[in-house]
Specification:
Layout: H1 3-23, E1 33-35, E2 39-41, E3 47-56, E4 62-68, E5 72-82, E6 88-92, E7 97-99, E8 103-107, E9 112-119, E10 128-135, E11 141-148, H2 150-154
Parallel strand pairs: 2-11
Antiparallel strand pairs: 1-3, 2-3, 3-8, 3-9, 4-7, 4-10, 5-6, 5-9, 10-11
Length: about 160
């Protein structure tokens, strides 16, 4: 191999190493999650909507993968989006909710939210219920969630919802 060819090969190898180091592999860094106050609506028609804010102040991404409580049949991750015909459509987020480093994700009516499915009879206005949030990379967090009138959740809804 000629000297020029060896130099080009060495330069190409160095470029690959440098560029690979800049991009970093997926999952690098450390998430640092701050979960804000959570509130759930008074149940109606067998469901209750739960809203909260999760801030990731770390330098690594994370993902909310599940939520659980013993006070409901299930807790589902939902997102309401407006389709091409202008209709609001609620979809199940089976893949979880990304929590990118350096961002705040708001769970609100008319957007991302958690849905308590068939909450038990003890989920009433003025009460609380424990809800555990499970993440891909961070430890689980258990919250005491206040049950409030639905109108109190609507105050935090995105504009136009």
């Amino acid at each position: 191999m000629s000297r020029a060819r060896r130099l080009r090969a060495a330069a190409a190898a160095a470029a690959v190493l440098l560029l690979g180091g800049c991009a970093g592999p997926s999952g690098t860094g450390t998430p640092d999650l701050r979960v804000g106050t959570a509130r759930a609506s008074v149940p109606a028609a067998g469901v209750s909507q739960l809203v909260l804010t999760i801030e990731n102040v770390g330098d690594g991404d994370d993902r909310l993968v599940a939520a659980t409580t013993e006070r409901a049949l299930a807790v589902e991750l939902h997102e309401t989006v407006v389709d091409d015909e202008g209709r609001a459509v609620m979809t199940l987020r089976d893949d979880g909710v990304p929590l990118p480093a350096g961002t705040t994700v708001r769970f609100r009516p008319g957007g991302l939210h958690l849905m308590l499915v068939v909450p038990d009879a003890d989920v009433v206005r003025g009460g609380t219920l424990p809800v555990t949030l499970a993440f891909d990379r961070s430890p689980a967090v258990t919250l005491e969630v206040a049950v409030v009138p639905t109108v109190e959740l609507l105050e935090d809804a995105p504009a136009g919802s």
